[in-house]
Structures are given as structure tokens and as C-alpha cells.
Specification:
Layout: E1 3-16, E2 19-32, E3 36-40, H1 47-54, E4 62-67, E5 70-71, H2 77-87, E6 88-92, H3 103-108, H4 118-131, H5 147-159, E7 165-169, H6 177-192, E8 197-201, H7 205-208, E9 213-218, E10 221-227
Helix pairs in contact: 4-5, 5-6
Protein name: ABC transporter ATP-binding protein
InterPro entries: AAA+_ATPase, ABC_transporter-like_ATP-bd, ABC_transporter-like_CS, ABC_transpr_LolD-like, MacB-like_ATP-bd, P-loop_NTPase
Family: Belongs to the ABC transporter superfamily. Macrolide exporter (TC 3.A.1.122) family.
Length: about 230
Amino acid sequence: MSTLVSIRNLDKTYQRGPERVDVLHGLDLDIERGDFVALMGPSGSGKSTLLNLIGGLDTPTRGEIVVDGQRIDRMSPGQLAQWRSRTVGFVFQFYNLMPTLSAQRNVELPLLLTRLSAAQRRRNAAIALELVGLKDRASHRPAELSGGQQQRVAIARAIVSDPTLLICDEPTGDLDRASAEEILSLLQTLNRQHGKTIVMVTHDPKAAEYASHTLHLDKGNLVEQTRHAA
């Protein structure tokens, strides 16, 4: 496997009034293409900050972030927005679906920024919904779906543009155990059978077991890496 994400000497500092908050300190990290990485750590350890930096939702105070050969730490906000639309799919704890739109239309939303025709958008969205097991729910609105089904729609929306990288922030944090296991199995399938590189923040050790390995952060430092059996 080749390296997809390369991070060197990464610092992230926030200014909260007169107080300076150092979140990440000189962090070095490589994520291989095809990896499924779980990020764990106590509250305030920097895991969500690191996830946002990898996904181009935030920029570092210092250091280098290379994703698929591109230095995203040097990009302008406009360049980052274009890069995210091409490269990254996002899955959040709260599904962020449009309540007035059907599952099909929700999945099509990222494609509105492309030059695809309406027919192509519908076709691609249908393929993504079939991939997550919701082909028969395409016309349903979010209120007509369970929490697990809504998260499947959100995953379909994340993969409909065929991104290189999936960024998942507590994707099972709002689900019961059975629904959570279904979502984690789906992510594992996307990783193992479809080659998606996944970086997932989770507080749940059972969720982390679905990843290929776990990175443990504490006080902005990478303190441990655990590789899981296949």
C-alpha cells in the first residue's frame, strides 16, 4: 500500500480570548491507502481537531498535511472547498439530512456541484443507495426512516462522488447497539471490498475493533497505536 495521508510536525493552537489553547503538538502520522483508522482518546485530546485537519475543514497553525500528493495546508479556503468536494466524503454523528427531501434527493446533493446531468445524478444516487442497502427506501424522507437508515443515507451521500477518503466523526454515537453494528459493518465493507480509506473518530472501543488499527491520542500527542487482527 502507498501512503495516502502524510502529516509532519503538525501543531494546532486556538486563541480563546486572552488564553492560548495548544491542541496538537508536533504530530507525525502516516495513513496508508486502503486503511481503516479509528482515532480514540479522552475529551480534549485533539482527535476531532485532527480529523478536521485531515478532512480540510480546518487549517494547521504549523506543519505539513499531504493528502494524495497534495499539500492541503497551503490551500486557500476556496481551493480547500474544491478539494473537499472532489476528495473527501463526510459522515457525522447527526445525519445532517434535509428533512423535506427524499433519501434519493439527499444523496444527490453533492452532485449538484458537478457537471453531471439530472439523469446521471439520479443514477449515481441510486447506485449509492443500493450499495448501503436502501434501494427500496429511495423515496422516503428522513422522518420515515430509522436512525440507522438515516445514517445509511448519510453514508450514501458521502460516497456518491466516489471520494478517495471517508471522514467519520462518531458515526454511531447517536445509534443503539444493533444499528451501530450495522453501520460499522457497512463501513468495514466499504473499506475491505471497495477500497475506501476511512478515518473515524470514536469513543467506543467496540466500534474501534471494526477498524484495521486504532490511534490513541492524549493531550495532542500520539501515544499508542493498536493494530487489529483481520
